[in-house]
Design a protein that fits this description.
44% of the residues lie in helices and 17% in strands. The protein contains 9 helices and 9 strands. It has a 7-stranded mixed β-sheet with strand order 5-6-4-3-7-8-9, with helices on both faces.
Length: 216
């Protein structure tokens, strides 16, 4: 039996980009593409693309390149997008509702099943046909429904408490928008999105550019 090699986080981080660009090529009617042509579009070297894809079997043919539709389908399988993932959003404020209205979730197999909040003014409000429920119903809801992913768009002061309850109820993946780092059991997968960190990186790059070009 061949031992499976561990795929680096950098490679995994590029897979969604490959999937997205290949989707654009499919929509444009492109049937095949070389690693060189794909590298120009993605700003990743052709060598890096070949190395990345070789981690999963390669998918290309010498002299032909890659079949766009086939490669996108295979990367989708690697990312688990050929399966359905039931998810809920905890925190139905502006960010939570914006996430709920993001239609591409369903296209990629992420099925929004519920929204939860503590604000009684939001109780029963419909977002894309899904009613907002109060947090006191969450535990019972999780016991009665098969939910795999919970997205957190709540204040950091509440995040750890809510996460403890989610873990107890069997949630295995958390998409964390709360402005705090979560340290949870190893069998719980956490993907954190720190919006302010992205803005700080943007600020750094703007400042560096201005300094480099002598702008004030």
């Amino acid at each position: 039996m061949v031992e499976e090699k561990e795929i680096s986080k950098a490679v995994v981080g590029r897979l969604p980009r490959y999937y997205r660009y290949l989707g654009e090529l499919t929509d444009a009617g492109v049937e095949r593409i070389s690693s060189g042509e794909l590298s120009e579009k993605m700003h990743v070297t052709a060598s890096q693309i070949r190395q990345d894809l070789n981690n999963f079997g390669g998918f290309g043919q010498q002299g032909y390149g890659y079949n766009v539709k086939y490669l996108r389908t295979e990367i989708g399988k690697i990312l688990g997008l050929n399966q359905s993932h039931n998810m809920i959003i905890i925190g139905a404020g502006n960010l939570g509702q914006a996430l709920a209205k993001y239609a591409s979730f369903e296209k990629n197999g992420f099925l929004l099943k519920g929204l939860f909040d503590v604000d009684p003014k939001l109780d029963g409000m419909m977002v894309r046909g899904i009613p907002i429920q109060m947090m006191d119903k969450l535990e019972e809801y999780l016991q009665e429904n098969e939910i795999e992913i919970a997205a957190l768009t709540i204040p950091k002061s509440k995040a750890l408490e809510v996460c403890d309850m989610l873990v107890e109820c069997g949630i295995k993946a958390i998409w964390n928008f709360a402005h705090t780092d979560l340290h949870l059991p190893e069998d719980v997968i956490v993907e954190s999105v720190h919006l302010s960190d992205s803005l700080m990186k943007l600020s750094y790059n703007i400042t560096s550019y201005k300094e480099e070009h002598g702008e004030s």
